[in-house]
Amino acid sequence: RAAPRACGVHNVCRLLTRRAHGFYARDAGVAHRKNLGLLRKIMCQESTKFKNVWTTHSASPIAYERGRIYMDNYQCCITSIAQEPRILYQKSKCAKSEKIEDALLLECPLGEMLPSPSDYKASLIVLTVQNWLLRLSADSGEVLEKVYLAGSCCKFFRYLSWDTPQEVMIVKSAQNKLPAAARQAGIQQTVLFYLAVFQVLPLSFIGMLEINKKIFGNSVTDVAVSNGILIVMYSMGLVRLYNFKAILEQFMEQPFDLGQEFNWNGQVGVVGKYPFGLPCNIKITDTPPLLFEASSLENAFQIGGYPWHYIITPNKKKHKGVFHICSLKDNALAKNGIQDMKCCSLEPDWIYFHPDMSGRIIHVGPNLIKVLKLKEVKNHADQMEIAEDFTIVANRENCVNNAVTVTASGRVVKKRFTSLDDDPEQETFKIVDYEDELDLLSTVAVTQIGADGRAHLDFHCNEHGILLKSIPLKESWDVTYSHEVYFDKDLVLHIEQKPNRRFSCHVYQMVCDTARDND
């Protein structure tokens, strides 16, 4: 019955709006949105608690991806979705030559026909120290595909990243550095990095290219690819952007398919097979057209918002912690576009575009979180200004920091210094994240109490910043070591590093409080 009603609406915007509001009950997304809305309401109820159901420890780093906990260099996989986490698979300990350097979770795209039944299930793309790219089943660890990357050239591939999430993957080498003896002999290394580009599901080879000093300059320190843009960073803080898709099209010498026999530069082999690996079939012979460049302290550069803006820090150390928000169109600084919290802290504040695609900006300091928005200046449609959408403030009501105190005997004592904004004895924000499916902004705040640090995870309304739920974490939080907190629907997971490179993982699950169970 929904179809005839839909036929009566001819405006595309109205159709999309009605669908988002759930007018068409046969739309599969309607039920999913309703279920997530119910989950959010249940989770934010006062009677709903998060219970620590499982804790484990490891001598190696612990990773988390979409309900799966990986340990022992990805040899052990534990599902966190069950009532109590359980092992999905446990592989025998691998040799050092098979050590995994990096990994990406690969999920099946919607609405596409894929060549193999295994492609419809989640898999893990891993990169080994010996330059093998493997696609593993996320449920069993079985090797589904394997590609050898490095041929006769000395390439040490170490990093995996997405150009387009779940579509185009980049495999990046470590920076090429000549041995000291070769440098002393006057031998020069012109190739700095190698980038191998793959389409995923089905896994296919697009090409491999060099980042060469002769093309991009001597002071290149790093490169990255994101959303079709090649980002080149320089030692003096310069960041340059190039059209990556145009580079692939312009400088591709010959396309190759995985498994294809080839005769390339005197080499005969099979693409992606040992010992030949992949051919370097994209040769940049001239500097590509420059899209954009900016100078920023420590190469910090971000693009986002609507209309497009970018965030930089002026390229001088005295400006650390000062952020400029400028128009990408004409480099004009937005009105109120200089953001400076004037923090006096050991750890700097940080800023980034909100991951909810709203175009807003999140600025996080030790005791204050600002959510900012771009809006048109009144009577000046071509100029944008930065306005405050809402703020979240740390709970420091009991904090007294008097510069002058009087003792019981009446002696006046003056402090020679004031406490830092991120003083461990005061509540300080450590993590800010966004849960896209529940549309919640999560924050982790920590307070040092004696020898122990106590942390709590708070959920805020993403639209207005209202506090909806607070979850105390039972384990102590040592601020001198690294921590990761994941909030995934009804699950909270805390991974922490401890002294002597020991790692711990704490899993909390949502439970409804009852009269019998006060947990």
TrEMBL record:
GO BP annotations, alphabetical order: protein ubiquitination
Q: Which InterPro entries match?
A: DCAF17 (IPR031620)
Residue ranges crossing the lipid bilayer per the database entry: 191-211, 223-242
Checking Pfam families in the record gives:
DCAF17 (PF15802)
Q: What highest taxon heads this organism's lineage?
A: Eukaryota
Q: Which GO terms describe its cellular component?
A: Cul4-RING E3 ubiquitin ligase complex
Q: Which named protein is this?
A: DCA17 factor
Q: Mind listing the UniProt keywords for this protein, alphabetically?
A: Membrane, Transmembrane, Transmembrane helix
Tagged with keyword Transmembrane: yes
